[in-house]
Design goal:
202 residues, alpha/beta, Helicase, Ruva Protein, domain 3, Dna Topoisomerase Vi A Subunit, Chain: A, domain 2, 2 domains, five-stranded mixed sheet, two-stranded antiparallel ribbon, 7 strands
Length: 202
């Protein structure tokens, strides 16, 4: 693709690094920003710079947060005896949008994927066990809220085996989510029913 400007080309190349953004979409976005008033573009770049400089991860559950502890972990209105284990922060947002779950979370930061060189030690699994062993709030149930993919199932089976030594209930979200699907793409009703209709992990 020929570009009228090296600056445009560099901006398109960087924009195209984003997931789901191809070169054509990146070009449309860059040209849109060029046509916008300068102050609007500056607001965007400022927001992104502030995000990178100040974003934190909850010290308890590892989800994205503004402070050292996220609002969910800090809330006394949540049921801290139930922990839903998810892959990424986007899954926390997806489940929260259902308004069907009132426990807390634990974000692994990925799933076990030997083909990609990701093993248990690369995930936030040890901190989950630490929470179970030393939690001020007695944890009674762990929900395995992982996407029904091969990697998600592998991670769930690994966690189930490791968690069996703890005196807790282990459940998984109901299979209202299609095999191979991601939680973030499930509609809120289906995801909500999967949470409320969770079953004991087999």
């Amino acid at each position: 693709m020929e570009y009228p400007s090296k600056l445009i080309e560099e901006a398109v190349n960087e924009m195209a690094r984003l997931p789901g953004i191809g070169k054509k979409t990146a070009l449309r976005l860059v040209l849109h920003l060029v046509k916008e008033k300068e102050d609007k573009t500056i607001l965007l770049t400022s927001a992104l710079s502030t995000l990178r400089a100040n974003i934190k991860f909850c010290s308890t559950c590892h989800t994205i947060a503004d402070e050292s502890q996220c609002t969910i972990c800090a809330s006394n209105r949540r049921d801290h005896s139930i922990v839903c284990v998810v892959e990424e922060s986007k899954d926390v947002m997806a489940i929260e949008n259902t308004s069907q779950y009132f426990g807390v979370y634990h974000v692994l930061g990925g799933v076990i994927s030997p083909m990609n060189g990701i093993g248990p030690s690369e995930l936030k699994i040890d901190s989950l066990f630490s929470r179970l062993a030393s939690s001020d709030d007695v944890i009674k149930e762990v929900i395995l809220g992982l996407s029904p993919t091969m990697e998600g199932d592998t991670t769930a089976f690994y966690l189930n085996k490791k968690l069996s030594s703890f005196p807790i209930k282990i459940s998984s979200i109901a299979r209202g989510i299609p095999m191979g699907g991601d939680l973030e793409y499930a509609d809120e009703i289906t995801l909500g029913r999967s949470i409320t209709g969770r079953t004991l992990f087999q």
